[in-house]
Design goal:
With 201 residues, this protein is mostly helical. Helices cover 72% and strands 0% of the residues. The longest helix has 27 residues.
Amino acid sequence: MLAPMRPFLVAVLGYLLGSLPIANLVAGRRAAIDLRTRGDRNPGYWNAKATLGRRAALPVFAGDVAKGAAAAGVGALMMHGSQGGNWWLPWLGGLAAMIGHAWPVFARFRGGRSVLCFVGTMLVAAPLAAVVALAICGAVWAVTRRFDWAARVGVFGFPFVEAMFDPLTRVAATGVLMTFIGIRFGMAALADRRDPGHAVG
């Protein structure tokens, strides 16, 4: 395959993987509901857990993580097949999946905030840092018994953990993905202010 085509293919496949509406597929099958009209209207794991229950929402958790991991995996395969290295291709695939999750072509471009897609991406792009961050997340959860706080510590502390293992260029690439998450949360906050009860997914 021609080298210039690799990033394009990674981006397209990543976006399509991210566009798979896992949460709504699970919610539709379990309870025949659309999560975009229930709870905080975010078609993701947290709303699925609040609406369907923790056990029913587990496939959403696993599926959203898998989307990011698969997209980053496509990038990793393309990276190993190229002469120039192109270390950033797993990050590109993950970012494309996060964009697809946020604005999914298969769900009328109304999606989630992409946090779990980010987690899946990092499991492939920066596995050692991801394992350490998951251990920290587990420790915080064990102490506080609050998974939401543990998840925040694990995600937002990730660049600091990654800086211990990876070059700063890769940490900066991770920062780009985290900036996207921040934008999505900012959009949700603005939507709430304009129309209370409505949230950007």
